[in-house]
Each structure stands twice: as C-alpha cells, then as structure tokens.
C-alpha cells in the first residue's frame, strides 16, 4: 500500500510555527518603530520651530538695538550740524522703534523673564524719546546752542546704556535658549536616526523571515502537489488493490463462517440424534416403572420413580430446546455465509412493483397483525439484484408489522427517492421504535432490542445489513423509543458487479 | 434383492455417532443386510478392492459414503470406485454427507455418484431420510462385481 503524507512532519511544523511567530513579532515591532518615528518627527518639528523662534527673537533684539543707535546717531548729528538731512534720518529710524518694541514683546510673550526686562526697557525708551523730541524741536527752531547745552547734561546717555545693557542680557538669554534647544533637537535627530536604523534592521529581518517562510511553504506545497499527483496516478491501482484485499477478506470470512457452521452441524446431528434415542429409550423405562408401581410397588424406589418420570424427560427437554436453538443459530450463520457466496445478478427493478409482490405474499400476516402497508409512488427505478432486494424489503416490512406499539394500529409506508446518484428506499412505521442506544446493535447477529415478547433469533436485520453491503449499499435506522422507526436503505442506482462486496 | 448373495452395505463415515444413527435407522426400516463400517478412507479402499470378503472379490455391495474424512476426501474415494476399469464401477454409491454445496453436489454426480443425500440436522428428518433410504435399498437391484 502506498501511504501518502499530506501533512508536514511535526518538527517542520514546529519550525514553521516559530517562523510565523517571529514574523508576527517583527511586524509588531515595525509598527511600533513607525509610531515612534512619527512621534519623533512631530517633536523635531516643534524643536525646530522653537529654534527659529529664538532666532527671530535675537533678530528682533538686534534690530531694536541698531534702530536705537541709528536714531541716536541721527539726533546727535542734527544737534551738531543742524542739517535737515539728519532730521529726516532721525524721523525714519525713530519711527521704527515703537513697532520694533511691540514686535519684540509679541515674540517674547511666552517668556516672563524677557517680558520683565522689556517692562524695564520700555519706560526708558519713553524718557529717551521725550529727551530726543526736545532736542529735535530746539534745533528745528534754530536754538542749536540750547539744544547742545541741554544734550550735554540730559540723561540720554545713561538711559541708553541701561537699555543696551538689558538688550544684551535679553540676547544672551536667547543664546542660552538657542543652545538648549539646538541640543534638544540634535538629541531627537540622533534618536530618529537610531529608531530608523532599528526599523530598517527589523524590516530586513522580517523580510528574511518572510522569504524563508514563503520558501518553506512553497516547498511544502510542491511536495503536497507531488504526493497528490502520485496519489492520483496510483489511485486506480490502489482502489483495485484495496478492493481485491477486501473481497479476499470477505471471501475468507464467508468461507470461515461456512466451514465453522458446517462443522458444527456434524456434532449437533449426534447430540440431537442421540437425544431422540434417549427420549425413545425413556418411554419403555417409564412404562416399566408404571408396571412396577402397579404390580410390585416394593421394588420401586422413590429415586427411580423420579428419574423415570421427571428427571429424564426434563433433561431431555432442555437438551432438545437448546440444541434446536443452536441449530437455528448455526443455520442462520450458514444462511448468511451462503448468501455471501451467491452470485449477484443486477437487473432492472421497479421497487414499487416489488413491494406490491412482497406485501401480497405476506398479506395474511399483515392483516392478522392489524397493520396497513402503503406504497408511495412513484419510486425511482433501480438496477440491482432482485432476490437480495426482495429479501431486504420483506425483512424490513415484516419487522415493521411485527413490532407494533400496543393500542396503535400499524401504519407502514414504503417510499423511495434519489439522492446524489443513489436510491434511498425507506420503510417508515409507527410502531414501538428502537432506543437510540441500540441503533447499531440491532444490525448485529443475534442481537435484539426492547421487550423480548416476539419470537425471533436476532438474525433478520443482520441478514438485511449483509445483503445491503453485498449490493454496494448501506442501511441505517432513525427512531425514538415509542415513536416509530424509519429504516433507510441506500443503494447505488445502477449496481455493477464491481459494487458487489 | 439378489437371491443367492445378499448385498453387503459398506459405510464409510468418520463420525461414530452418525454411523451408529445411520445403522440404527436402516435396521428400523427392516434392512438386515450386513453393514461394514469404516472410519477412514484408506482402510475402506483396502477392504473394497483387496479384502477376500470385500465387494471386488466377492459379492455385490452398495456404498454409503461421507465426503468429510480425516485422511482423504470422499470424492477421491468416489473417483477411485467409479474410475474406468475399476471392478466396482457399477456398484451404487450413495453419498450421505452434511455438505450441501452446489459445486460439491455437481462434482459428485459428475464422478458417477448414484444418489446424493444431505444429512438433515433435524433428527426427525434425518431418521426419516435414512429409513426411506433403507426402503430404497430394499428394492433396488445391484449388479455383480466384474
């Protein structure tokens, strides 16, 4: 026999399972890496924005300082030279101061320390602007000397120094912030790189695993395909071989049953024969005892009387009934064995007509038992062995009329239909039913189910099953106790000799 | 019945019990012919063909033959008896056996068996069959051995 394994051997199966587990882990890790990368990118963007913001602040501080210095330069030039060129330069640069301060305050609104510094700077600018406006007005009015004198004593120089000093402090603070933020950004960049590297490594591993897995499965598939092909190619052969094996085994069993039952008959003939002889011999003995009782009672012992009148007939009676039973059992086996040896001759049969014949033949039994047999037409035509089918159906119908439920008139329906190329013939009754526990058992030889109130040896259904198998079919029963039974005979629609088991 | 020589009955039957029952029932049918009983094929063949008082050398006989023997098959004995040139070729052979196989029955008739009887298991039928066989034996004519 060729045995083909379509499943993986267990060790390879384990490897494949590990591979799948690793791959799953790899995918989970990849997903985690992707999430991490996304998060890092968002953080990085935040840090970059912060750095840009710091640069903006520095830029704004520098601009403010330059504007302050330029406007001061323009004012001093105007005071010294009195040229209107300086006045326009002053107007241009000093006009930018207020927006610049506002811008700076806006940029540093998130930083309380810078805000505090601006709070100190702003009043100084107000004072400075008042001094400057005074100088400009005096020069414009031609009072240059007065403007110069006032300039020499006013507080604009220390005011500007104070502003300068604080702006430098602000710039220094921003430089410090820039350093912190740059470092933070560099750290996230490094983190990004390592996570990305890790992800790449993971991707590589998962890819390798996937390739391994695919290769393994492909190899398995190829192996399965090859073994399937081999299986297909040798299927016919195997079926033929199996069939031959089966029919050999079947023949063997039938031969065995035949020989055994046959050889059992031989000693049984003796047992029954000599029991009959014994019974015959007991008759004159009993007569002798009777005569002795009448003519010479004193020679008759109680033992002899008992032996002749009770013990002997009783013993012979038991031997008789037992041997008769044994004879019936042996005959049943013999019948089954002989049935197995009978040549099967498939022919066209109309089951409905066959059932009519069967019911006609047993009409008196059916009537005696108060049952009605109904045949549902039409029934599918079938090609099978007539005698075997007749025996099966007649056994089933006979059983259906036999095991009625007391107080319920028997109603038996015989019907048939086709199912996936096979003919199902059903014998449905409303009798006492069969306990589901016994559904298999009732088909076994010498086994019966339920109350043993009907004569029988437990042979009929065994015979039916043997015949069904012989016809390449099966038989089963569906029933609940007390609620009738349905026997379903499943036969090939068109039986060939190869179907015969 | 033959007037000058009584027909001997040769019974070849390995089962002592069967032999006894057969003999009893033949006697009950009123047949008083001599019955020689053999339980194996070898001694039976020896008696049939070689014994001084055996059927081949003296006197007509008829043979009751069982097919299941310990040392040889009953059909072999039948073949020997009915073989071309055998002195017992015309001697009637009644095959009395438990086998009711169709093939076996056909084979025995092909070999020249005269009657084939299956031993009924039921004793009443068995006794009945043997008694009828006895009646049959009392009316048939048996040829002389050659």
Automatic annotation (TrEMBL), chain A:
Gene Ontology molecular function: phosphorelay response regulator activity; phosphorelay sensor kinase activity; protein kinase activator activity
Entries under InterPro entries matching the protein: BphY/WalK/GraS-like, CHASE3, HATPase_C_sf, HATPase_dom, His_kinase_dom, HisK_dim/P_dom, HisK_dim/P_sf, Sig_transdc_His_kin-like_C
Coiled-coil spans in chain: 221-252
Protein name in UniProt: histidine kinase
Residue ranges annotated for the Histidine kinase domain, each copy included: 259-495
EC number: 2.7.13.3
Pfam families from the UniProt entry: CHASE3 (PF05227), HATPase_c (PF02518), HisKA (PF00512)
GO biological process, one term: osmosensory signaling via phosphorelay pathway
Organism: Sphingomonas faeni
Transmembrane segments: 20-42, 190-214
Top-level division of the source organism's lineage: Bacteria
SUPFAM superfamilies: ATPase domain of HSP90 chaperone/DNA topoisomerase II/histidine kinase, Homodimeric domain of signal transducing histidine kinase
Reactions performed catalytically: ATP + protein L-histidine = ADP + protein N-phospho-L-histidine
UniProt KW keywords: Coiled coil, Kinase, Membrane, Phosphoprotein, Transferase, Transmembrane, Transmembrane helix
TrEMBL record, chain B:
Keyword Phosphoprotein found: yes
Segments forming domain Response regulatory: 8-134
Name this polypeptide is given: Response regulator receiver domain-containing protein
GO biological process, one term: phosphorelay signal transduction system
Keyword line: Phosphoprotein
Modified residues (4-aspartylphosphate): 66
